[in-house]
Amino acid sequence: MSLVWTLIAGFLYAEIALVLLLVLPVASPYRWNRFFKSKFLALLAQQAHIYFFLIMGVLVLFLLEAIREMRKYSNHEQSGEVHLNVEMQHSMRLFRAQRNFYISGFAIFLVLVIRRLVTLVSAQANLLAQSEASMKQAQSATAAARSLMEDKKTEKAKEAGEDTTLNELNKLRERVQELTSELNREKKDKEAVKSQAESINREYDRLTEEYSKLEKRITIGGGTATGSKDD
């Protein structure tokens, strides 16, 4: 095998190893995404499309060369007078052309596969990152909603306590007003009883004076009647 095809075969083996690493669960998509976004690969990614088309162009050229060699040695007409050594060389060259065809063909195929796998792994890692960010946002929103609900509950409790205090104050005020009105009624009743007692006393004094006057009159009238009988 020539040096060029040895390099292409080595490139094919490296592609096979990379495909196995991407397919097998060796690393998580998040780690692959971090590896793809490293500084070195980020610099290469800026010219990735150029490298991709360059590699594809080189591999396609060698594939066409292998196809040409295959057609060249496949269309060779054998004759009975050809020496066995020449026939062996011809078969060996045809075998090498077919081998080179398969090497370059599989190399082109794996280049396309690797590009697609890298795209899928990066997309999956981005989706995981977005889902983690969404989960964190949802958790923070849930925590904020819970804190708001707790604040509202405390505010409602404070308002309920204030309402209870106001209701108690209103009840106390009503009770004070009732007691004040009862005290005023009792004062009025006492004043009425006092005035009634005073009027009774005045009436008693008047009746006493009249009784005394009547008694005096009776006494004077009795003395006058006794004097007239003696005469």
Automatic annotation (TrEMBL):
Q: Which residues cross the membrane?
A: 7-28, 48-67, 101-118
Keyword annotations: Apoptosis, Coiled coil, Endoplasmic reticulum, ER-Golgi transport, Membrane, Protein transport, Receptor, Transmembrane, Transmembrane helix, Transport
Presence of the UniProt keyword Transmembrane helix in the record: yes
In the record, biological process GO terms are: apoptotic process; endoplasmic reticulum to Golgi vesicle-mediated transport; intracellular protein transport; protein localization to endoplasmic reticulum exit site
Residues in BAP29/BAP31 transmembrane domain copies: 1-133
InterPro entries from the UniProt entry: BAP29/BAP31 (IPR008417), BAP29/BAP31_N (IPR040463), Bap31/Bap29_C (IPR041672)
Major location category of this protein:
endoplasmic reticulum
Say which family it is in.
Answer: Belongs to the BCAP29/BCAP31 family.
This chain belongs to the protein called Endoplasmic reticulum transmembrane protein
